[in-house]
């Protein structure tokens, strides 16, 4: 099989996805392609993905490669890393049986992964799960001991203009099935009108769903410039020592922001912010909370998340996967009953109205005259 397309390159898949168009060939350096990255590539309708790293390293059964192949995308695995040196953005790239060419020039060889090969690799990774889980638990406990300051008041959130008192808060992260979950809770958002907090790319997710975030929080590495300029309050997640690399980007855009120095993840401190500012309830969409979520993020433990969820647990509702909980179907008999119920008051009004009675009498007279009755 031979395919041709315009090559776009980036070692950060989430950055590349923003630039991709249908028919492009994505050149990435992404070990263990995760589900969120795969779905982003699928949505962009790329022809092929050329990965300069192992798409499945064997650490855990990541589902990203399988999703790509099942959606008809050619996946070239472990292509040479020199592609990032010799290939230019916009070059015409040809993929033929895993071999890579530019205008007839051979650039290197990769391996095309089939669905069957991917499933075999995924099955083999299950043998490692026991050791991985033990190491993950140990790291989680170690990190939790070091990060207890998160829940002991050592890292207070910065002041914000948004008033949380008497309101609920919705925290959106670009995690698994975040789009479907947002659609499912649309009625909740429209009726309750919670404080909308977008964690990095989660702010873009809110805007894609038709909402404007009240607060954007994170290290500013995956949220678009357009969303940053939407008027929301911006909080940059900084290292505990106060260093905030994401602040430079905001200054270049002419935007101001608060700094939140704290350990842990940006979604952790988003929950802390809502909790400390008095939110009545915290609803989370797309957040990372289990072993595979954190392995996909490249983290070896979840100490901060464990601690924060212990603190805010009484107020936290995790809406992750809520779209799969229940899907109602409107049955025909219910529709008929609804129509009949709606017609009853209309018929009653028509029956008691003098104008309607006189109109009915005129119609009866015309009917009698027409048929000579």
TrEMBL record:
Gene Ontology process terms (BP): thiamine diphosphate biosynthetic process
Residue ranges occupied by any Thiamin pyrophosphokinase catalytic domain in the UniProt entry: 193-229
Electron transport among keywords: no
Membrane-spanning parts: 334-353
Annotated SteA-like C-terminal domain residues: 320-371
An example molecular function term from Gene Ontology annotations: ATP binding
Superkingdom: Bacteria
Keyword tags: ATP-binding, Kinase, Membrane, Nucleotide-binding, Transferase, Transmembrane, Transmembrane helix
Pfam families: SteA-like_C, TPK_catalytic
Keyword flag GTP-binding: no
Name of the protein this chain belongs to: Uncharacterized protein
Species: Carboxydothermus pertinax
């Amino acid at each position: 099989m031979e395919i041709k397309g315009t090559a776009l390159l980036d070692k950060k898949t989430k950055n590349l996805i923003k630039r991709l168009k249908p028919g492009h060939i994505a050149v990435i350096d992404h070990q263990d392609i995760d589900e969120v990255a795969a779905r982003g590539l699928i949505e962009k309708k790329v022809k092929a993905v050329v990965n300069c790293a192992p798409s499945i390293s064997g650490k855990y059964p990541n589902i990203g490669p399988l999703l790509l192949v099942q959606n008809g995308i050619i996946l070239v695995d472990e292509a040479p890393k020199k592609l990032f040196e010799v290939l230019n953005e916009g070059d015409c790239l040809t993929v033929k049986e895993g071999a890579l060419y530019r205008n007839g020039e051979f650039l290197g060889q990769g391996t095309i992964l089939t669905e069957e090969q991917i499933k075999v690799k995924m099955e083999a990774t299950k043998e490692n799960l026991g050791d991985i889980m033990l190491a993950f638990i140990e790291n989680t406990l170690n990190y939790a001991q070091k990060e207890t300051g998160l829940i002991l008041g050592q890292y207070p959130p910065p002041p914000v203009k948004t008033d949380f008192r008497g309101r609920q808060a919705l925290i959106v992260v670009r995690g698994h099935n975040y789009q479907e979950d947002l659609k499912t809770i649309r009625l909740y958002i429209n009726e309750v009108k919670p404080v909308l907090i977008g964690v990095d790319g989660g702010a873009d997710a809110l805007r894609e769903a038709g909402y404007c975030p009240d607060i954007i929080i994170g290290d500013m590495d995956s949220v678009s410039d357009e969303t940053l300029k939407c008027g929301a309050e911006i909080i940059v997640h900084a290292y505990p020592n106060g260093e905030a690399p994401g602040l430079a980007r905001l200054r270049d855009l002419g935007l101001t922001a608060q700094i939140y120095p704290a350990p842990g993840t940006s979604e952790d401190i988003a929950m802390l912010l809502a909790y400390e500012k008095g939110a009545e309830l915290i609803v989370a969409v797309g957040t990372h909370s289990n072993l595979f979520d954190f392995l996909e993020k490249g983290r070896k433990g979840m100490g901060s998340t464990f601690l924060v969820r212990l603190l805010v647990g009484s107020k936290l509702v995790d809406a992750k996967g809520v779209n799969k909980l229940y899907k109602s179907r409107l049955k025909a008999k219910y529709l008929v009953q609804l129509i009949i119920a709606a017609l009853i008051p209309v018929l009653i009004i028509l029956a008691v109205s003098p104008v309607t009675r006189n109109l009915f009498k005129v119609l009866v007279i015309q009917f009698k005259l027409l048929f000579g009755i």
